[in-house]
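DOMAIN: structural biology
WANTED: fold as tokens
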Amino acid sequence: MHSAPGFLLPKPLPTPSLLERREPAPFLPMTRAEMTALGWDRCDVVLITGDAYVDHPSFGMALVGRLLEAHGLRVGIIAQPDWHSAVDFRRLGRPGLFFGVTAGNMDSMVNRYTSERRTRNDDAYTPDGQPGRRPDRAVMVYAQRCREAFHGVPVVLGGIEASLRRIAHFDYWSEKVRRSVLLDAKAELLLYGNAERALVALASRLAGGEAIAEITDLRGSAYLRRGLPLGWEESDATEVDRPRSVERRYPDPYASGQRCAIGQGSASAGPAPGRSSDLRAGRRTVVRLPSFEQVASDPTLYAHASRVFHLETNPGNARPLVQAHGDRDLWLNPPPVPLTSAELDQIYELPYARAPHPRYRGCRIPAWEMIRFSVNIMRGCFGGCTFCSITEHEGRVIQSRSEGSVLREIERIRDHTPGFTGVISDLGGPTANMYRMRCRSKQIEEVCRRLSCVHPGICRNLITDHGPLCDLYRRARRVRGVKKVLIASGLRYDLALRSAEYVRELVTHHVGGYLKVAPEHSEPGPLGKMMKPGIDAFAEFKELFDRFSREAGKQQYLIPYFISGHPGTSDEDMLQLSLWLKRNGFRVDQVQSFLPTPLALASAMYHSGKNPLHRVGRESESVFTVKGLRRRRLHKAFLRYHDRENWPLLRAALKRMGRADLIGHGKDDLVPPKRGDRARGSEPSIAPKRRGRRPSRSRRSRG
């Protein structure tokens, strides 16, 4: 039986002290020859990744490897190994502490397949974009090969694929609910989210002789056990999802539209679950989710479990979750406490080579080409968009680097990155403009149970000051050798509307002709299911954007992104979006079709037909979802109404919907009539066949 978890406090990242201090390696070794050149007889940790090894903090394995190296460990990397046998996994020998396994910067299934389940033609994280260099469900496959290579070496899972598959989850590619990846991979431990503190603590304790089976108290970790530890009591998940009065122990997550519990008149104001009030009473509570077997067979229970999971993700009040898988329990410890600015600075200023490993010389790695002149200034996102995986992985609390650290990285790019011409391609992160934004009160933040800080409206407790970001932009422009600083990360325009100064600064100095924004839709039904702002906010932002562009004497354009096939979207919604696009003169070239990723709230809607943004029950709100391939293609076609290849599909749909009045050559019409149609909206004319003669070309119908 494992020991009872106690959940380590969020201690700062320690001073390097695990083993003897070493000079940083030029690159973390990928071969025995490189290990020998460094004077190593073995690695303490071997990292397995599905990406090419680029020694840059935007690539997860480089960041993890350099962090462990800074704490005295000998770290090797096996990038994109041949997974058909265990041979490649023995390349660096038996690691002294553990194998660290990740699929890479993307979920391997998202990386390889489109939303229509077609195989992608390239892989941006592979030399020369070559596809097929990683297996499906890479975390599971790599972990199994590690165990074959060296029996008895602990396997630790991490990265976004492990994060998104840490509990029972809906898998779009097999159209079923799968077990936690921890079971399928047969690994000892899974670290999710921003796992730097947990990773350093794990390595330190293993180096000190502690068995991995006894390390059960790391925040942001998942492991398997049987039975509850001593001193714990169990709460059923239905208790979380049931409104309670102020006298009861837990706040009501539904009170007053999920407002923060303090300072907003909520009837549920009171002690945060699982925090000091429980500890003073000698109680520690774990929330039991419906079992894997239950959620796999009952979509409504799956939606309920998804809602409870997301309500228990605030590091300030989340309790552990437990979910039975057969005769064992998957135990999920509370999320990591966000890193401080000083800790983020420390991580991003490690001695990265800031280049691909020399073995790739002569090859082009598209993902590296895209980010080599960009700087990540923050982590996390409080937007809570239901189709996005950032919240499940990085959390809602914004973690920002200091201004000095960002400027020092710009100088390193200038001085050490080949090909730099004076243009910084991005200062951003998950979003362009959440830098330094936070809740006005730590006390409020720690008890809040909102799923988004900006939906259905911007929380009044959210500090939306863009001043620090404007100051950072101005100082970045003044760095010697920098000619231009562009912003390429997606902009949250509802926040930008809070600061005309920011919009002016952005439009005047940091737009390279085009700026990406993501309204996603025009209709309130789909936008509500996405937790996105109304289209009026986009129109207001566009007005500011156009005005400041004119004042700057620049011809600049907004590039809006829209999504088709999202749960809650009807054919009529897509038609209205199509008409909105035409009225406003937008012709969308790149279209995103909804792809259900594991753990996302929208994926729960897609699978269950229920809405986990509200209390889930048998009679609760149902959500219509487009699933058939033909219907999904129709929704995509509405976004590209101007593409003649889509006209036959759209004509048929408009007639079926009773909107044949939109077929014609007028300015308000959506598509032109088929050649040979007698009039707008009529059926194609059918001429009598001429026996023995082929109809002339002029009489053949064309799309």
Remarks:
- The first helix runs from residue 32 to 37.
- Residues 49 and 79 are 5 Å apart (CA to CA).
- The first strand starts at residue 45 and ends at 49.
